[in-house]
Amino acid sequence: MSPFLFGVVNMKKNSAFLIVVPGLIIVFICLGLPLFKVLLPTIFQGNYPASSYVEFFQDAYYLKIFFRTVKMALITTAVCMVAGVPTAYFISRCKKKWKGLLLAISIFPLMTNSIIRSFAWINILGTNGIINRLLTSLGIINEPAKLLYTEFSIIIGSVYLFLPLMIVTVTGVMENIENDLMEAAQSLGANRISAFMKVVFPLSLPGIIVGSILVFTGTLTAYTTPQLLGGNRNLVLSTLIYQKALTVGDWNSASVIALIMIIITVIVIRVFNGLAARLDKRGENHG
Amino acid sequence: MGKNKILCIYAVIVFAFLMIPLFIITVTAFGSGSAITFPIESFSLKWFLNVFTTKSFRESFLTSLLVALLATMISMLVGIPAAYALAKSKMKGKQLIKSIFLSPTIVPGIVIGFVLYQFLVLSLKIPMYLGLLAGHFLVTLPYIIRVVGSSLEQFDFSIEEAAWSLGCKKTTAFFKVVLPNITSGISAAFMLAFINSFNNIPVSMFLSGPGVSTFPATLMNYIEYNYNPTVSAISVLLMLCTMIMMVIVDKTLGIASLAK
User: Fold this and answer.
1) Of A23, A35, A114, the CB nearest to B199
2) Closest CB from A84, A106, A242 relative to B110
3) DSSP 8-state symbol, A12
4) Would the CB atoms of A265 and B114 count as touching at under 8 Å?
5) Which of A52, A61, A237, B76 is at a distance of 20 to 30 A from B146, taking alpha carbons?
6) Which domains does chain B carry?
7) Cα–chain center distance at B42
8) Sign of the alpha-carbon torsion through A80, A86, A92, A95
């Protein structure tokens, strides 16, 4: 990458390029080079190119973890959308004083360490946790239910982690939608819900898509929450990397999983952004 | 009005979901029993004392502060000029260069930590703390590029040109005209970068070892072997810091500047 950039600099002695080059070199040394050096060899090892990757997707154990990770990211994104979009709409229509407060309440968790936010759910879902003690004392269940260290607890923890991100992102877009548009739709005979679905929702779709990208890729790659709430039985790709590398010492498998994670992230961002671009064009045609 | 009420109740439930776990964790920090209980049976501050007297917490807290501060500083030194150059020039490949600077956001944190540990620390024998710093530099850089970049988009560059035409040197104009006009963007970028570096776990998980451990990494290890209100007490202290910081940001930059 860097020889190419040096070439460009030599071709046109552009001062803007000179300012940018030191940063590019540092990013290359800190990220590009380590990625190439560690991950590239995994493609060429084995009997045929990419054989490690073919083997990964033929292994039932890995496949299970792979699909679990994707499934949980999908569920988390869907829940965050359902819970976050109406809430964002509510915030964006609030009076200014309330808006600031509600936005602050939404931002606060984002600034709080994710260990704390996961740890809270250990206390709620654990064997001696709040839910289990409440249910046993009420006589609804006799023995504590296994809520913690399940896929369910990872999903709840991930929703808890990423819902504020969805709310804040979507609120940012909805704030720019004029209230008059809603009123106009209603005065033309649309009821509140259809006015929302036909006016506000399409206009805020770009924000919802950005929010979904953040939540989906965030859940897909999150380490803290699945580590704390999933236990050893419910590994996801990121906890699998850590386990493979540091517990088992299988650095090669860890590298394979690492590249797979990067590729999924890039594909997801590409697909969603493509979707957003198409929606934008459709909007332009209407305008 | 009826449907507005439904929306209002919906929002209240969502906010309750966001706040109640943090409220519970706060209450449990003040319990006296060695098991975490809610509600607490009797009041005690001993877990807070435990936080301050535990050496690994004190040391790793300072490590995290230092790493976050250094990483953010380096990112600002690299990122602010880069954001400026990207905002000003109409050069080809501008988008490519910007996406290179933002590329750390595409690579999962655990992967960044993994490749840095394997390449910098294991292969090149670079000291662990430098690897950690490199990782946190990558965490912070995108915030600087994005937030300072968007603040430069609002900046009216004709002011800078006016300074040039009045005989001001380009570097002087940058420091005396451009920078003072984007201080709020720079402050917001600093805050976001610093907080996200301080809170980061996945990048630090591989880049921690004897003598070098960030606060969150120490906390992760602690939780693995201990289940007592010490972690709740730490949570309360960290949340207190977050609150203070948010009030300061709200008074100076406006709370919305953190929503980036």
Assistant:
1) A114
2) A242
3) S
4) no
5) A237
6) 55-227+244-258 (1.10.3720.10)
7) 35
8) negative
Tell me if A107 is assigned to some domain: yes
Task: Tell me how many residue pairs between chain A and chain B have CB atoms under 8 A apart.
Answer: 231
pLDDT digits (tens, 9 = 90+) for A227-271: 999 988 899 999 999 999 988 889 999 999 999 999 999 999 999
Q: What CATH number did the domain enclosing A65 receive? A: 1.10.3720.10
Amino acid (1-letter code) at residue A259: L
Chain A contact for B109 (CB, 8 A cutoff): yes
Torsion-angle region of A112 (φ positive above 0: left; ψ -120 to 50: alpha; else: beta):
beta
pTM: 0.91
* B31 at interface of A, judged by CB pairs closer than 8 A: no
First to last CA, chain A: 41
Number of domains in chain A: 1
ipTM for the assembly: 0.91
Taking CB atoms and an 8 Å cutoff, what residues of chain B touch A26? 78, 137
Any chain A CB within 8 A of the CB of B110?
A: yes
How many angstroms separate the CA of residue A215 from the nearest CA in chain B? 13
| Unique residue bearing structure tokens 């029993």 | B33
Q: Which chain B residues contact residue A38 at CB under 8 A? A: 114-115, 118-119
Cα→Cα distances A228→A29, A116, A187, A257, B186, Å = 32, 10, 51, 20, 35
Mean pLDDT on A160-175: 94
Where in the sequence is the domain holding A231, given as residue range(s)? 59-286
What was the pLDDT predicted at A283?
Answer: 55
B164 reaches A (C-beta below 8 A): no
Nearest alpha carbon to residue B224 among A156, A147, A115: A115
Residues of chain B contacting A108 with CB distance shorter than 8 Å:
239, 242-243, 246
Q: Which residues sit opposite B31 in a β-bridge?
A: B43
Is residue A224 in a domain?
yes
Contact call for A111 and B245, based on CB within 8 A: yes
Rg of chain B's alpha carbons, rounded to an integer?
22
Asked if residue A115 is part of any domain, the answer here is yes
pLDDT range class, residue A14, cuts 50, 70, 90: low
Residue A258: the pLDDT is 95
The span from the CA of B93 to the CA of B90, in Å, is 9
Q: Which residues 32-71 of B are in CB contact (within 8 Å) with A?
A: 35-36, 38
